Amino acid sequence: MNYRHAFHAGNFADLVKHAALLDLLKRLMAEREPLRIIDTHAGRGLYDLGGTEAKRSGEAEQGVLKLMQAPGLPAAIAPLRAAVLRLNKGGTARLYPGSPLLAAEALRPGDTYLGCELRSEEHGALKVALKDRAGVSTLCADGFQTAADQVPASGPALVLIDPPFERGDDYDNIVQTLAAVARRNSRAVVMIWLPLKDLETFDGFLREAEEAGAGPLLVAEARMRPLTDPMKMNGCALVVARAPDGFAQVLDSLCAWTVQTLGQKGVAKVWTAR
Q1: Partners of residue 269 on adjacent β-strands
Q2: What pLDDT does 180 receive?
Q3: Which residues make beta-bridge pairs with 237?
Q4: C-alpha distances in angstroms, 136 versus 50, 131, 189, 250?
Q5: What is the rounded CA–CA span in Å between residue 85 and residue 83?
Q6: Whole-model pTM?
Q7: Secondary structure of residue 39 in the 3-state scheme
Q8: Beta strands 157-161; 189-196: pairing state
Q9: Cβ-based neighbours of 225, under 8 Å, separated by 6 or more
Q10: What does the alpha-carbon distance between residue 249 and residue 258 come to, in Å, rounded to a whole number?
Q11: 3-state helix, strand, coil in the chain (%, to 5)
Q12: Which of 61, 82, 140, 273 pairs as cysteine with 217 (C-beta 3.0–4.6 A)?
């Protein structure tokens, strides 16, 4: 799968991922201790929905642009719309924030964010998007290895894993990183974004993650359409290790709204894999 993010910024999967991230940050920052955030595949951090890539796919029109006009939003997704409005100064949603910008905006004094991006061009854009922000740093490096090496040995931590799935070993690397983070810091929360194409691939990943000792895992699925064509991205999933209390209910509301509002005869599911 090729998931170069500039083509897909602001689509339904971004709404699920970024709304969940905002709620997760709020819950983790309710603690007084400083939070360490590591983003393994940060991308460029800020996306132009009027740019060539986004216009070519048209996915933002069926995602964030519908979000901006939707009435009666549930509390689980309303903060994302508010963040997009702030970024665009209350005007038309031309710019869309990636996870680096959302995380950087949420940092308190003492919190830190590290964004890893292996592509030099994307990393250059990421540095510009996050320029002069306190507590923020970036690396042009392998995010899987960086997360395993740099997650703190104690204290609150959040690892975000969202690879482009251009490499055949991405699933294996996610499992290895999950296990490495758990060994190093038993408090660290890990949130993984995954495409949903077919159940065989997804179930196989979950089995390997459980066998690696990464569980229990909170699993949220937003199946936008029946999983009948494995050549299409039929939905997305979030898999969260050591999720905080109450987060499952948020994911349930978020996925249900996304599937009902933007999907085609799909289904939302939230459950725990042990």
Answers
A1: 221
A2: 96
A3: 194, 221
A4: 27, 8, 19, 27
A5: 5
A6: 0.96
A7: strand
A8: parallel
A9: 232, 234, 235, 263, 264, 265, 266
A10: 14
A11: 40, 20, 40
A12: 273
Q: How many CB atoms lie within 10 A of CB 50?
A: 12
SS3 197: coil
126: which residues sit within 8 A by CB, 6+ positions away?
42, 43, 44, 45, 100, 115, 117, 138
Rg (CA), the chain: 17
Contact 187, 244 (CB under 8 A): no
Query: For the chain, how far is it from start to end, CA to CA, in angstroms?
Result: 28
Q: Cα separation of 88 and 234, whole Å?
A: 30
Q: Is 99:162 a contact under the CB 8 Å cutoff?
A: yes
- Give the pLDDT confidence score for residue 4 in this predicted structure: 64
Integer Cα distance of 235 and 198 in angstroms:
10
Give the CA-trace dihedral at 84, 88, 93, 99, to 10 degrees: -40
Per-position DSSP letters for 54-118, written without gaps between them: HHHH-GGGGTHHHHHH-SS--TTTHHHHHHHHHHTTTS---EEE-HHHHHHHHPPTT-EEEEE--
Per residue in 26-57, pLDDT (tens digit) is: 999 999 999 999 999 999 999 999 888 877 77
Name the amino acid, one letter, at 88: N
Which two tokens mark 173? 């690397």
Q: Tell me: the pLDDT tens digits for 189-204?
A: 999 999 998 889 999 9
Q: Which region, left, alpha or beta, applies to residue 193 given φ > 0 means left and ψ of -120 to 50 means alpha?
A: beta
CB 224 within 8 A of CB 194: no
Joined together, the tokens standing for residue 44 give 């460029």
